[in-house]
Amino acid sequence: MMDAKATREGYGDGLAELGESRPEVVALDADLAKSTKSINFKEKFPERFFEMGISEQDMVATAAGFALSGKIAYASSFACFITGRAYDQVRTSVCYSNVNVKLVGSHAGLMTGEDGATHQALEDISLMRSLPNMKVIVPGDYFEAKIATKKAAEIPGPVYLRMARAKTPIYFNDDYNFTLGKGVVMESGSDVAIIACGAPLQYAIEAAERLKKDKIDAAVVNMPSIKPLDAKLVSKMATQAGAIVTVEDHSIYGGLGSAVSEVMAEEGLAPVERVGTKDVFGESGKGPELYKKYGLDSDGIINAVKIVMGKRK
Amino acid sequence: MKLDSHKDLEQKAREIRREIIKMLSISGSGHPGGSLSATDLMVALFYHEMNYNPNEPLWPDRDRFVLSKGHCCPALYAILADLGYFPKEKLKTLRKLNSPLQGHPSYTHIPAVEASTGPLGQGLSVGNGIALAGKLDKKDYHVYVMLGDGEMQEGNVWEAMMTSSHYKTDNLTAIVDYNNLQIDGKVSEVKEVMPLKDKFKSFGWEVFEVNGHKMKDIVKVLGKARKKKGKPSVIIAKTIKGKGVSFMENIVDFHGVTPNEEETAKALKELE
Question: Which residues in chain B are contacts of A58 at CB distance < 8 A?
Answer without folding.
Answer: 125, 128, 156, 159-160, 162-163
